[in-house]
TrEMBL record:
InterPro entries: Prot_kinase_dom. GO terms for molecular function: kinase activity. It comes from Nonomuraea harbinensis. CDD domains: PK_MviN-like (cd13973). This is Protein kinase family protein.
Length: 504
């Protein structure tokens, strides 16, 4: 079969079944496929008969397959013969940097954390003599598994025929552009990059991140300048490799993996979303995550086991009912006055308590009544947006006791009306050591909010359950001790869910 005749349903190497044509450009086609042996989705790259760089791409893919850093796309297979050539790699699902920037710039430290992970991964690739050379927002993905993934190392440069005498410098500049994009929502290039507008310019030079977006820390502005804005360096040395970028960002907080349970399983998705993997702007989108079917536990399946258990329970109930009936009849027949036995009075069945329901807060605010009144207020709404990858965090302090500057700082939720609080589930950062209190009240005033629960050593998913009935319009998650993270002390909250049995 020739490559030009490849269509959906084609099987490669008697194993990889092509399903959906994701993107196509300049004689190369990306597919979503199924590995029939391991029953998992994979990405497959095929080539037209006249594609000029097949050998280079296959050779690069084979070299990339030896990379072991989990933040780099894993290559499973690469083959070339007289009839066809193809490359098989992992199917990555999640949000590209371009997707994350669709609503504006990221929180500065979150942008830096994503790029720091990418820089470390590329530093490992460089140690193996492999480079990227065409980093774009579509190559950096925050996966559905809450990890960073860099797409296209070695393969993309071969695909587009890119070469350089300074691969370290080129990839460092690429990382700097990704950081610039994350901090500003603009692309520091000669033209727009996909949906990102071109970076503004002054006096013929790109503006620095701090000139474009308020609130960018000075050290991140400096790292970006040293990486990709030579006109603004003013004597500062260039960062000339991914390893140097990684070192410059070594102290930033990294994105934290989060596990969010679902009340019920989402519907199974069977089709891939469109991808731009080989468009001229070289961006690559990822497809929706697929759910695995429930695993059966035996040749007859788990359903039959359940049926047998239910049948056994029914039989036992019948036996008990017959026994009770016989005992009642015996009492009636044995009554000395021959009167019918009177039925036993029954007590009224009490209704089960109302099941607690999740209630969405109307507003979230960074709460710092003992300081400047607000604590990263612009990020507070990210804790109630339903997205596990976004977060609010406190300012950085120089000790766990908030630098002895104040007794606490926190996140205040306005529920819109007074209601009874069953519990509050907060997904905190993974760094251990936080002491966190739950306060509830009807006024957004620290003295009016009553402490109803306290957790020491809190981290990850934490449930605050009041020991006694608690009601109020305002719910405060109050840090009195901060965990250490990368040499700094700050509290982090990814998501908050408030449960209530009803209004107070």
């Amino acid at each position: 079969m020739s490559t030009s005749a490849i269509e959906p349903g084609t099987r490669l190497s008697d194993r990889f079944r092509l399903e959906d044509r994701v993107s196509e450009s300049d004689g190369a086609t990306y597919w979503k496929a199924i590995d029939e042996i391991l029953a998992r989705p994979v990405a497959v790259l095929t080539f037209a008969p006249d594609f000029p760089r097949v050998q280079e791409v296959v050779t690069a893919a084979r070299a990339a397959s030896r990379l072991t850093d989990p933040r780099l796309t894993q290559v499973f297979d690469a083959a070339q013969d007289d009839d066809r050539a193809y490359v098989v790699s992992e199917w990555v699902t999640g949000d590209t940097l371009a997707d994350l920037l669709s609503s504006g710039p990221l929180d500065p430290e979150r942008a830096a954390g994503l790029v720091a992970e990418a820089a470390e991964a590329l530093a490992h690739a460089h140690e193996a003599g492999l480079y990227h050379l065409c980093l774009r927002p579509g190559n950096l993905v925050w996966t559905t598994g809450n990890t960073v993934k860099v797409l296209g190392v070695a393969v993309d440069s071969a695909l587009y025929g890119l070469t350089t005498d300074q691969p370290g410098l080129d990839d460092a500049e690429g990382l700097g552009r990704l950081l610039y994009a994350g901090l500003t929502g603009h692309w520091p290039g000669d033209e727009e990059e996909g949906t990102l507008p071109a970076a503004p310019m002054t006096d013929g030079h790109f503006c620095t991140p701090r000139q474009v977006t308020a609130g960018v820390p000075g050290y991140l502005d400096t790292v970006t300048i040293r990486a990709c804005l030579p006109e603004s360096r003013r004597g500062q040395g260039a960062l000339s490799s991914p390893a140097e970028i990684a070192e410059a960002l070594a102290d930033v907080a990294r994105p934290m993996p989060i596990s969010i349970p679902y009340g019920s399983a989402p519907s199974v998705t069977t089709s891939a979303s469109p991808s731009e993997g080989l468009d001229t702007d070289r961006r690559r989108l990822t497809a929706p995550q697929h759910l695995q079917p429930a695993v059966q536990t035996g040749p007859q399946g788990g359903g039959n086991v359940l049926n047998r258990a239910l049948m056994t329970a029914v039989v036992l109930l019948v036996i008990v009912a017959v026994g009770v009936g016989a005992w009642t009849i015996g009492r009636s027949l044995g009554s000395p006055d021959g009167q019918e036995a009177q039925p036993t009075p029954t007590t009224a069945t009490t209704s089960p308590p109302a099941q607690a329901q999740a209630v969405k807060a109307e507003k979230a605010t960074g709460f710092d009544p003992l300081g400047d009144q607000e604590e990263k207020a612009e990020l507070a709404a990210l804790t109630i947006d339903g997205k596990p990858s976004t977060f609010w965090k406190t300012d950085n302090y120089n000790s766990a006791a908030l630098g002895n500057l104040k007794d606490g700082v926190g996140l205040l939720l306005d529920m819109g009306k007074s209601m009874q609080i069953s519990d509050v589930v907060a997904t905190l950062g993974e760094a251990p050591g936080a002491t966190v209190e739950l306060k509830v009240g009807d006024q957004a005033d620290l003295s009016s909010l009553k402490t109803v629960a306290r957790v020491k050593g809190a981290s990850g998913k934490t449930t605050f359950k009041p020991e006694q009935t608690a009601s109020g319009q305002y719910v405060l998650i109050w840090f009195t001790r901060l965990p250490a993270d990368a040499g700094k002390f700050h509290g982090t909250i990814y998501e908050v869910v408030v449960h209530s049995p009803g209004s107070a």
